[in-house]
Automatic annotation (TrEMBL), chain A:
InterPro entries: ABC-2_transporter_component, ABC2_TM, ABC2_TM_bact-type. The keyword Signal does not apply. The keyword Transmembrane helix applies. It is a multi-pass membrane protein. It is found in: Cell membrane. The chain crosses the membrane at residues 174-193, 223-247, 253-274, 286-305, 346-364. Keywords: Cell membrane, Membrane, Transmembrane, Transmembrane helix, Transport. Residues 138-367 form the ABC transmembrane type-2 domain. This is ABC transporter permease.
From TrEMBL, chain B:
This is ABC transporter ATP-binding protein. One of its GO terms (molecular function) is ATP binding. InterPro entries: AAA+_ATPase, ABC_transporter-like_ATP-bd, ABC_transporter-like_CS, DrrA, P-loop_NTPase. Signal peptide: none annotated. It holds the Pfam family ABC_tran. Transmembrane segments: none annotated.
Amino acid sequence: MISVFLLQWQRLRRAPILVLSFLGLTILFVSVLAGFGGPNSQFTIYTYGDPTLEEENRDKWLDRLNEEGNLTFHWVEESEAVEAVTSRSAGMALKLMNDDYQILIAVQDPSSVMIENYVYQVFSEELRLQEVASHVNADEFYSNLDKVMSDPTMKVTTESLSGEESSYAFDERLHFLFGMTLFFSIYTMMYSLMNVAEEKRVGTWDRLIVSPLYKWQVYTGHLLYSFLIGMIQIVVAFLFFQVVFGFDLGERYGTLLLVIGCFAFAIVSLGMLVMGLVKRSQQMQAVIPILATAMAMLGGAYWPIEVVSNEIMLALSKGMPIYYGLDALKGAAIYNMGMPELLQPISIMLLFGVVCMGIGINLMERRA
Amino acid sequence: MLETEELKKVFKGKPAVDGVNLYMDEGESVGLLGPNGAGKSTTISMISSLIKPTSGDVKLKGQSVLKDPGIIRNVLGVVPQEIALYEELTAYENLKFFGRIYGLKGKELDLKIQEVLEIVGLRDRQKDIVKTYSGGMQRRINMAAAMLHEPELLIMDEPTVGIDPQSRTHILDTVRHLNQEKGLTVLYTSHYMEEVERLCDRVYIMDHGQVIASGTKDELKSILSGEETILIDLDRPYPALVTDLQSHEGIRQALETTKGLKLIVPKGSKLLGSIFQIAERHQAQILNVNVQVPTLEDVFLHLTGRKLRD
Ligand SMILES: Nc1ncnc2c1ncn2[C@@H]1O[C@H](COP(=O)(O)OP(=O)(O)O)[C@@H](O)[C@H]1O
Ligand SMILES: [Mg+2]
């Protein structure tokens, strides 16, 4: 088993292009989709006012909205904002009122969903605070609040508060990172697993079978390799964006690793199932891109599943391991969830893997 | 050492191997001769426990291989019909891997690798990537990979198909050397009768999944003891002449060859006169006539009315 496992690495060393290119594509796509600038990546939102808006309120809202570093709410004349949105040079514009807002939108895309959420949160929070303030002395309340916010002993609260706010802006970049990384890792794992089909075609498989090795050892060697190379690709991509672009993956590294492992297991098993179903390795070659793309699309790797409203699509997404992978990764990285909270997506991925593996090996052995 | 009992394999209702009985004694060199599709490879796959027979059994030293495939795996070396190597790796890396799966390691494995490379004559090219080898050299490595674990029984499935004469001679010499000097038991499969005739003590002739004749080379040829072979060279092909000769009652088999004709006739039948007459009728120009002792090829021709290779 170890020999078979090590052999795959030796073969990879001689022909690393495929795997490296999938890692390269991951980095390319995430960079483009999540915006090049890394932490400086900016969304500028044209902001204008209702005629009734008071100057004091205008400044207050702009200050509050601009607290999130990655979003710039830029004050313009109404005509300019409307012009920008209708000509589609801006995706959206925000209209401020004294204690309400309206959003002018050209195209509904993932980033507009995030921004809408963010604006909604700022307003509802501020209005809630105002509500409380109206029952007490307003000046005193706000100065107390400021003190609380800047008080070092209350640092934890402050951090968690700002962490929650920034999650909206970071959410999108992490979404692309998670989505694209898992998507391209499907290719790597399945193509690596094709070594099995390839060995059967060339005849080296027969050599292994007539040797004293047990068949399960041969399979395990291959599966372990595909699994590990998938995990490594995902981890390298995550580390790259964390170190180079400063993506915030939270602190639950163990949980992240566990989720990645479960996802890789599910995909490798799915690969076995596919191999059991197709007859030749060329067919497998054709099936992999279709399968990977379909799963990524339906499972929400391209756009967040939150923007999908079609019932059928939503139902289908629940059948995709990538959906649970994304769900669990976001849970761990953004919402700081641990094992107990993520038990559901994790166990679904594991179950998926066990079922596919069982059927796949059975089909393959029946044909032999 | 090894025997098969009524070995049978059916693929989708069609029998590929149909009740084959063969045996091999220790140190013997046995040939399995037959045209493409005769069922040779399928027989070998069943012997090496790669595929399960539809019925019948394989016995190694009296024990059923079907019941316990493990018993044959360390004893057996199989050289597959196709080149089953990792072509992006070097010959050395390939051999290292195939040695490891037989439990060899370290110095012992290294020594063994150098030894088999020496045998197949490719020591100086061992660090080269297999893909860059000629077909003949790949076949030699293909063979080396089956000998690392010092098998008692080496089964070779058409190891000389499609290679240069030099590599072919090398492989044949190697097999003979292993069999005669080292006492290795060899089962050699081929559709080239010259190879089998040169290498093997005993021969099984297969056709359509069945053994149609078996015995030592002399025993097989004695099937034709009452017959002789006449080779006639002609200036060009005459298909109609062949048909005419075939229907001549004294002639057992008539066949076109590259140079002219091959006839199998009863010994001492004094047919040459009428053969010349028939040739005259077709205005065929006879360049040469040769009366020969039969070969294994002729045995196959006699038994089936066909050539081994078409
Ligand atoms: N896996 C298989 N499935 C179906 N038919 C097969 C299979 N393997 C071999 N055959 C058929 O069995 C017959 C014998 O094949 P084979 O043993 O390869 O012959 P040989 O090695 O003598 O050329 C052929 O007719 C071939 O088409
Ligand atoms: Mg064959």
